[in-house]
Specification:
heterotrimer; A alpha/beta; B alpha+beta; C alpha/beta; A: alpha/beta; Rossmann fold; seven-stranded mixed sheet; 12 helices; C: alpha/beta; 10 helices; 10 strands
Amino acid sequence: MDKNKILMKGNIALCEGAIAAGCLAYFGYPITPQNEVPAHMSKRMVELNRVFLQAESELAAVNMVFGASLTGTRAMTSSSSPGISLKQEGISYLAGCELPAVIANVQRGGPGLGNIAGSQSDYFQTTKGGGHGDYRTITLAPFSVQEMYDFTYQAFNLAEKYRNPVMILSDGVVGQMMEPVVIRQDKPQKQKHNRSWVLDGCKNRKPRLIRSLLMAEGALEEFNWKLKKKYDEIRKNEIRVETQDIEDADIILVAFGIAARVAKAAMKQARSEGIKVGYIRPITLWPFPENVIRDAARGKRKFLVAEMNLGQMVEDVRLAVEGKCPVDFLGRPGGGLINQEELLNKIRSLK
Amino acid sequence: MSKVKIESEKCKGCYLCIEVCPKKCLEVSKEFNKKGYHPVEFVNDKECTGCGFCYQICPEVCIEVYK
Amino acid sequence: MNKILSRPESLTLIQHSYCPGCGHGIIHRIIAECIDELGVREKTIGIAPVGCAVFAYDYFNFDVTEAAHGRPPAVATGIKRVLPDRVVFTYQGDGDLAAIGTNETVHAANRSENITVIFVNNAVYGMTGGQMAPTTIEKQKTATTPFGRDIKRDGYPLKVCELLAATGGAVYLERVAVNNIKNIMKTRKAIKKAFQNQIDNKGFSLVEVLSQCPVNWGMTPKESVKWMDDVFVKHFPLGVYKDI
């Protein structure tokens, strides 16, 4: 047995991934189904002599991350959907001040207080902005406990590399389920990033300033163009997608996060019934793997998008397909979990 | 003997310094500065004690005191 | 003759954008002098609010960050927790600290975050054009209380020092004013003490500075400093509210 393999919950893997990445400060606020995160961090971070603080609100927590991050310290916060809505103000300011930060959303059903079941209904919020202004949040969508660990680990480097907030868009199912995880034994991989923006006191240098208020004529437009350049760079370098059996497929399933687990199983079953099904799983939801989908949109293929919401990512799939193939949708909102059988029935109906 | 130096281009003409000067050493200038204010001018170096009240109340931090 | 009083090193040469007679300039200068005297300019990180004083980041000659409206105490918490040996302070107006950011203020005080808070209370929202603030006094006319603040509709002016005195964490709370020389000298003493407390790891210190806003009060600077003595301080008594 691999001694580096440990059975753990998704939410715990998220914490351990952050710890392995050298996250030195965690600020959070309890909300189900991510409560294991602040609870685990309250123990582990303190044991490691790092910073843990239970904030008075999600707003305060994300602004504490803002404070820690502007000193060049790796910092994160986590929450679930209603709490992530509160954090949007801070995410917009992080983007506007070009500060790195990692934010995890263990999604639950909405709108409003919703319920505490796993859901994928924050896709729009995460990938289309969420807060105000022209900005983008790099979004990674794990579908296993191992990916909770790995993606959180990687998120810190992405955040620092681009000085941009990174969202781990998980859900209550992945957060709560248990799977074995391979734990990294190496030291945190820290790439050398430019730190000339860090505020830590102006000893032997000129004072620095971090702000997002740009009132001078044309200054904000210029800054937004600079951001655009960065976002284009991220689009060029960071798109991640998993594909399977798309070459000969008649039907292409597109799903992310936990829905992709179900989609993968349904695809396998459909193949055993002789239906040629392929599968595309966007791992980065922003930047969205539109080229992979566009390239796959040919011939008499049909697309089927499966999500645990009323149809959010399907809009991006339709944009990428550009009307070349029909795009169908199967979704369940309000914390309903798509099951393999209903997805399979839908596949059979498209055949 | 003391004196104060006023950076008149920075003066916005609130005249709080004139109010607090115990020896009445400051007056409103007849000239305009570039901002369009009549700045304060120092008129009485015989009476000035260098108490610094004008400096303390100047919101523009445009007064220097010499003693 | 020697120069005995001049612009402190912790202020840049940039002229600030405040209206004539505004108290912000006096308070900035006092903060800068205290930081110079304590010799901590190179390890100070200031946090500018949203409101008139947002441009404080241009006027202070040390590291400054801006924070979202009301969030400076949370941002200060994040900085101070990871860099405990730096001097961290927030500069906040009444809207920022006592309306939109009341939660962050109360909890930072209650946790006794080892930070310094300079709270500028001028009874009005300046930047947005003179609307009612949480500290607008009864019957005071503002852009959104054209008939005067009506306690029945708008509630009471919020007394921050009195409120925070009830928290376990606040170690030093004092209300001062910058409308005359005597008060300015007391303000200077209070602000220096609030920074010294942080250097001595004592915990949360807040100085509430009553400050004149002649333009939004519809007064001349001379009238505004008099109104503070005649009216404003009657509603917000000066003095030490906590010192442990």
